[in-house]
Amino acid sequence: MAADSKSVKMADGAVKSGGSAGQAAKAGTVPTLEVKNLSISFGGLKAVDGFNVVIEKGQLYGLIGPNGAGKTTVFNLLTGVYKPDTGVILLDGKNITGRKTIEINQEGIARTFQNIRLFKELSVLDNVKVGLHNHHKYSTLEGILRLPSFYKVEKEMNERAMELLSVFDLDKECDYKASNLPYGKQRKLEIARALATDPKLLLLDEPAAGMNPNETAELMETIRFVREKFNMTILLIEHDMKLVAGICERLTVLNFGQVLTQGETSEVLNDRRVITAYLGE
Amino acid sequence: MSFLSYFISGVSLGAVYAIIALGYTMVYGIARMLNFAHGDVIMVGSFIIFTVVSTFGLNPFIGIAAGVLACTLLGVTVERIAYRPLREATSLAVLITAIGVSYFLQNVALLIFGSNAHQFTSVVSLPNLVLAGGNLTISSTAIVTIISCIIIMIALTAFINKTKMGQAMLAVSEDRGAASLMGIDVNKTIAVTFAIGSALAAIAGALLCSAYPSLTPYTGSMPGIKAFTAAVFGGIGSIPGALIGGIVLGVIENLSKAYISSQLSDAIVFAVLIIVLLVRPTGILGRKINEKV
Amino acid sequence: MTKNKVRIQNAVTYGMVILFWVVIQVMDKTGHLSSLFKGLLVPLCMYAILAVSLNLTVGILGELSLGHAGFMCLGAFSGAFLTNCLETAVPSVGLRFFMALILGALVAGVFGLLIGIPVLRLKGDYLAIVTLAFGEIIKNLINVLYVGRDSNGFHFSMKDTTSLGMDKETGVVLIKGAQGITGTPRAATFTIGILLLLLTLFIVLNLIHSRTGRAIMSIRDNRIAAESIGINITKYKLMAFSISAALAGMAGVLYAHSLSTLKASSDNFGYNKSILILVFVVLGGLGNMRGSIIAAMLLTALPELLRGLNDYRMLIYAIVLIVMTIFNSSPKAIELRSVVMSKLRGGAKKEVA
């Protein structure tokens, strides 16, 4: 219970500072994501222990912490890759705890992966079109027989996919095989594919990993732009503190599976405990 | 009593499967490939023993020695020519070459020995064991087979756990890249694995053909598949798994032949395999592999 | 590939098949076809259909199946059974053959679905051995199946003809265990074979380049990512697997109508047949349907074309198989090829300059 009231207080804080997000969340509105007391252990090891977070609509939220702190495990719990031992996950107030990955995606959570997971043999365009799968439909038989619905829906899909690709400046490469894209663009394509599923919440797992400073700066712009254009709520894991400090409004710090602290970015980054957790005593 | 007799011959058949399965399981564990031609190495070994013993009239032990030697050379040569160039290629490509090697060996044997069955003289010339006042006869071949299997299992386990080469094999099967960084000669280790597997195949051939004496160029094919099934059944990559899988399979096959239907015994063996894999997707002793997200 | 490129590629594939048909027709009319080659025409189509359909499972879905011959066997027997059953009810052989094709595809497809549900959870080599096992089980069960019909209806047995317990006067044995089905009209022609191959291509190519096909290929490329964007893995795996099985069943019906006696023997439907089809798929290129057709036809015709070499032909076949795979897939060979190619290209450029 103590943990619960703490997270509620945090949420209040977010309301007060909401102006900076340009998304004045009114008191009493349902947060996009609310997680209470989430835990999972693997063979006795508590990988995530009593994790709480509240993310308001339109927020850019960061999840940071040293290697092995359990950040990706949180993502895997949120997206149903693992089933939590305890805890509740509410998306727009709806309980999605323990649901299957594909159901959670259809409810509105999409993600990218730490080690890029593209459909390597498919074209850039087709990668995004797979993301559109559940929003633009025709039956398998209509597809095989090439009925008019096939041509109509495929046209819609192509237009929508190209629209998304142009946001990420990938439209010229739409015919490339995904694996032939340079690294930075692969990361962007993964975000575009996730956005194609029309999520309420976008999870980005180390989007800047392996990028040089220029690419990172460009990526920061893209993430900001995505938030504005799609009115997206974003939770991201990142080690690049410049990126975190530059775009995240609020942060949660994980250490050994537990929430070390959470709050506004500048406060959290100046917290002694956070510095100790990263650099050691 | 008849049940016991079927059971014992089942164990003996299973022991042969287990010896063949060792070849599959070691090669799979270390080179990550399905050596579809392994069954045909058995056939080649059997033909060599047949030639030495029946055609030249020499002692069966000389025959077995010649068979083991020839199969060892064959295994190493095949690995060098057909499999090593594909070490870094997809597992499907290696599978297809192995099928090619299988066709090759069968057709070479076909050219030399023809398609008619040859009568294999048993390499075991001991008298059968008669128990319970003549009610239970255990063939000497079955006894020799089971004993050979036990000796091979013990020797192989000792080899892997006690020798440097055995440790190298374990290392390569765990992580080929890391092993090679630690100074282990991966190519040599894989070659030795093939040599051991093929030598065992020759012994298995001698035992198999002593129990089922009709020898053709296709003799090795079905026992090869069954032994592979046994390896998967026990958990591919695991040596005790090969033993358990082989024995269980042999017993099921023999008992269903005796009590259900000789035509359906293969179907029953395969049905048991399917059930086991559905319950334990990596076999009885196989390790579970989780993909990290 | 752009949409237009896909269209051109597909048109080339269809065109190649049609051209093959035309060439054979011309050769036949002008008397350039040996009777040996004529006998090979229906099998050529059959193997091409089998290879294309297996490529859907192996190349597009990315799962290794060694039980394709089992589905072919199911199709062959259910189709031939129907054709023989309806001998009096439907006098037209063509119509019966047509109905048999539909039934054979349906039966194989349903079995594909039933087998796929438990089996497709397994991966890689485990899936391969289980599909092999299923193929062998199907073959063995059909091999001991007896079916007869008399005035009282159908009788089944797994033992022998007498245990069918049929009326002596009106009883007819339709499936005779290991002796199989006899007396199926040999209605399969080369033209029908080509038409079925074109149908198979139509289904498979249109499937691949559609919403469903993209979902299937996304599972092949990255299952976890596909799941994360809401693709129903089980549904699309099963769909690909059962469509592949249904098409193999159709090929089986074609096969059954090209023989006077159909037996569920190891030569016809054993695991070696499944492996043979897999060889076509791998050598033709995973996911490459045109390649599958070419490989299936060449490798089926090769042993026959080598007949002059008598005993050595299968040996040569084996060597061709090994050498081709090494040439196609060995990293060193690929590197060598690219070096040679770039030298050739470089040389060509210099000449132009």
Q: Number of DSSP strands of chain C? A: 5
Spatial sequence of strands, sheet with the most strands of chain B: 1-4
Gyration radius over CA of chain C: 22 Å
Average of pLDDT of chain C: 90
| Relative helix content of chain B | over 70%
Shape, principal axes of CA atoms of chain C: globular
Order of helices and strands of chain C: HHHHHEEEEHHHHEHHHHH
> Distance N terminus to C terminus of chain B?
56 Å
End-to-end gap of chain C: 31 Å
- Portion in helices of chain C: over 70%
Rg of chain B? 19 Å
Q: Residue ranges of chain C: pLDDT <50 for 5 or more in a row? A: none
Oligomer: heterotrimer
How would you write the strand order of the largest sheet of chain C? Answer: 2-1-3
Helix tally of chain C equals: 14
Q: Give the structural class of chain B.
A: mainly alpha
Low-confidence stretches of chain B: none
What can be said about this structure in brief?
The complex is a heterotrimer of chains A (281), B (293) and C (353). By secondary structure, chain A is α/β, with parallel strands linked by helices.
Please explain how this structure is put together.
The complex is a heterotrimer of chains A (281), B (293) and C (353). Chain A is α/β, with parallel strands linked by helices. Chain A has helices at residues 2-16, 71-78, 101-107, 124-131, 140-144, 148-167, 183-196, 213-230, 241-247, 265-270, 272-279, and strands at residues 33-42, 45-55, 60-64, 86-91, 94-95, 109-111, 201-205, 233-237, 250-255, 258-264. Chain A has 11 helices and 10 strands. With 293 residues, chain B is mainly α. Chain B has a domain at 14-112 and 138-220. Chain B has helices at residues 2-31, 38-55, 60-83, 91-113, 140-162, 164-174, 176-181, 186-211, 221-234, 239-259, 265-279, and strands at residues 118-119, 129-131, 136-138, 214-215. In chain B, a hairpin with a 4-residue loop joins strand 2 and strand 3. In chain B, helix 1 (2-31) runs antiparallel to helix 8 (186-211) and helix 3 packs across helix 8. Chain B is globular and about 60 Å long. The N and C termini of chain B lie far apart (56 Å). The model of chain B has no long low-confidence stretch (mean pLDDT 89). Chain C is 71% helix and 5% strand. Chain C starts with a helix and ends with a helix. Chain C has helices at 3-29, 35-60, 68-85, 93-119, 124-143, 190-208, 211-221, 223-228, 233-256, 266-269, 271-284, 289-305, 313-329, 331-352, and strands at residues 146-150, 153-157, 172-176, 181-182, 261-262. Chain C is globular and about 80 Å long. The model of chain C has no long low-confidence stretch (mean pLDDT 90). Chains B and C meet through helix 4, helix 9 and helix 11 of B and helix 5, helix 11, helix 13 and helix 14 of C.
